Amino acid sequence: MDILQGHFHQWGAVLFFVLLYGAALFFVPFYKKMDRKPATAYLAFALAFAIEMHGIPMSMYLISWVIGKNLPEGILWGHTLVGAIGHVGMYLSVLVSLIGISIIGNGWYHIYHKYWSKKSGQGQVVKTGVYRYIRHPQYAGLILLCLGMILNWATLPLLLAFPFVIALYYRLAKREEQDMINEFGEEYIMYMSKTKRFIPFLI
């Protein structure tokens, strides 16, 4: 229990992780720039992760209170399942997060130069870089970052929120696709037939 006590109440670390994960949003201008729900949901996810990882382990206290005993090490707190698989979850978290950041960065570079930076009516359907394979790399990257947080530090709020985050970005992606069809017509429909929404060759 001393290990647990030493790991929590580190509010500087909480701030660090919120800023670290929140920085990804600078490369994801959301739908019509007025819709703040996707950004808010992602930030809330990152905040819950950081607080339970370095602040107050609310899930562990709640579940311990419900079942009437302390949770064993590695169950719904730091480096989930550490007793069974060591720090594999942490390493997978880093790998998944790096993939997510790479996808976001690559997508931002291509869509910024060919669509966002253009005047109205001058943008084009982006088909280069990661857009050759998926239509929404920024949202796919944010979902991967959320998954990376879960792999590193699975808690009850994160497990409950993750399906909500996926559903939110799925709905947003469909709305944006309809806007692109309205703007580019048959060209975007053909592009959709050759790409996937989030995962190359799958979904």
Blueprint of the fold:
Blueprint lengths: L1 H6 L3 H12 L14 H19 L2 H10 L14 H4 L2 H29 L20 H16 L3 H29 L1 H9 L9
Helix pairs in contact: 2-3, 3-7, 3-8, 6-7, 7-8, 8-9
Describe this structure as you would to a colleague:
The protein has nine helices and no strands. The protein has helices at about 1-5, 10-20, 35-55, 60-65, 80-85, 90-115, 135-150, 155-185, 185-195. Helix content is about 65%, strand content about 0%. The longest helix has 29 residues, at about 90-115. It starts with a helix and ends in a 9-residue tail after the last helix. With about 200 residues, it is mainly α. Helix 3 runs antiparallel to helix 8 (about 155-185), helix 7 (about 135-150) runs antiparallel to helix 8 and helix 8 (about 155-185) packs across helix 9. It has one domain.
Radius of gyration: 19 Å
Biggest pleated-sheet summary = none
Q: Shape, please?
A: elongated
Chain-averaged pLDDT: 78
The span between the termini is: 43 Å
Q: Give me the number of helical elements.
A: 9
**Low-confidence blocks of residues:** 1-6
Strand content: under 5%
Class computed from helices, strands and strand pairing: mainly alpha
Number of domains: 1
**DSSP summary, beta strand count:** 0
The helix fraction, in percent, is 55-70%
Order of helices and strands: HHHHHHHHH
